[in-house]
Each structure stands twice: as structure tokens, then as C-alpha cells.
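pasting for the record
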Amino acid sequence: MTGKRLFQSVAEQISKLIDEGAFPPGTRLPGERELAERLCVSRVTIREAEIALQAIGRLEIKTGSGVYVSEKQPEEHAALPSASAFEVTEARLLVESEAAALAAHNITDEAVDHLKQLIEQMRTGDEEAANEADEQFHRTIAEASNNAAMVHTVKSLWRMREDIPDVKATYAAVCVHDADSRTAEHEAIFFALRDRDPSRARNAMREHFHRLIEAMLDATERMALEEVQQRASQSRERFAASSNIG
């Protein structure tokens, strides 16, 4: 991993801690040494990450005083709503289906080629690369719509997908089992966009999210059942322990 990528990763970790309330707006961050030990990196990397976060308005570096969380955070990092994975996906279905229809009218040959490359990346078997390609695929379509409000909305929804813990966990539970379906659905969207067919693009995107919602509901039920079973097992163990004491 390059130094640049490392400090960016650390900056993302610090941002996440800010979003989770570990470092509220206006408070002073721990010193470089403490943060370096906490995040298992060098003090130089911490300093680079703090400078990067100051550049986007997340932190304020006050010479002789320390590093503080900005009182007013950038709009992109505003508090996220308490939304479920179903709600986020339902919103994505409504927004991204229309984004795909708009993109079919406006998409360039370069964007079409980029979407094709992203689908190839999804086929590599590398889960991390596939997830990154998935995000870029949807963002590329939003950008191809030539609608700034649409782009902002899609980015915000993707942020909810990644930064709300329960939503991210549900997506992870689904995506582990649906790699083949996901790639095939993205291909259907790609072909509709390549052919500049708004109706097919809209329907292909809808089908993608309809299938995702069904898989998500199944995964949620499975996770809930596992939690109940785990609690029941713990209760049995406690009961057995108390019986032995008696």
C-alpha cells in the first residue's frame, strides 16, 4: 500500500470516528502519538491524514493548541438518518431507475466503455474489487444522467449504504451470495444503456433492485433467526450453570 493510500485510509477512519460521535464537533483530537498507537500507523501518517481532513473542512489545526473537530462539518458529512437497509434500497430503486432512463438519453461512448470495464472487474472473483466496481457502475450512470441533483442523491444513498452499520451488514450478507446475479443484472442495465433505450434501462435497474430487496428481506429474516437462536443458546447455558450451582 502506498503512503498516499495509507493516509487516505486513516483519514477515513478518523472521519468515521467523528461521524460515530467519538470526537464530537468542537472537541480536541487525541495527540498524534495516541492516535498513531490507536490506528497502528506512524505519527507522520496521522499528520498527513489530519492535513487532508483540514483541507475538506472536517478538522481545524491550531498551531500550539492541537487539532480540533470543526464545529460546522461539510454538508457531505451531515448526520445520516436512521434508515433501514430496505428503506435505503427502496429509495435507490426509485431514484436510480429514473437516473438510468435519463442516462440512456445522454450517455457518451466513453461512459459506455467505462461501464463495460467495470462489469469485467466484477467478474474477477475479487470481492473488494467487485464492490468497488459496483459503486462506480452506479455512480457512472448517475453522472451520465447529466443531472447534478440526481448525482448528489445517488452519492448520498450510497453513503447510507456504506456508513449506516446495520445497512452495511445487511448488504454484506446479501452480496456474499449473489455475485452471479449481480453481474448478470448489471449486464442487462449496460446493454440497455449501450443501445440508448430509456425504457429498457429503467426496467433493468428496477429488476436489479427488486431482486436485491427480496434477497435482503430473506437475509434479514435469516439474521433475526440466528440472533434468536444465539440468545436461546446463551439462556440454556446460563440455566445449566445455575442448576449445577444449586
